[in-house]
Write a structure and sequence with these properties.
Layout: H1 3-22, H2 27-45, H3 51-81
């Protein structure tokens, strides 16, 4: 697999994991899942030419995806609460 395909797959995986973490009901569950996402990012980035830069970018991607998903979850909860 080419380096760009590996990177693209890593980005999608980080985003998906972060979004799944954001949907969990408790903060403890969310942080546990995010920890697993970050661990996966660390393992994946070891295969990159520059592991530090790769991990930094993937963590930024995951954090943004998590923040956006949490915002949606909070608005959804607010609307449902009425």
């Amino acid at each position: 697999m080419s380096a760009m395909k590996v990177y693209s797959l890593a980005v999608l995986t980080a985003q998906q994991g972060a979004r799944q973490a954001a949907a969990l009901p408790t903060a403890t569950d969310r942080m546990r899942e995010l920890g697993a996402v970050f661990e996966d990012i660390g393992n994946t980035s070891r295969g990159f030419h520059d592991p530090y830069a790769g991990a930094r970018v993937l963590v930024q991607v995951a954090v943004r995806a998590y923040q956006e998903a949490r915002k949606v979850e909070r608005v959804r909860a607010y609307v449902q609460a009425g």
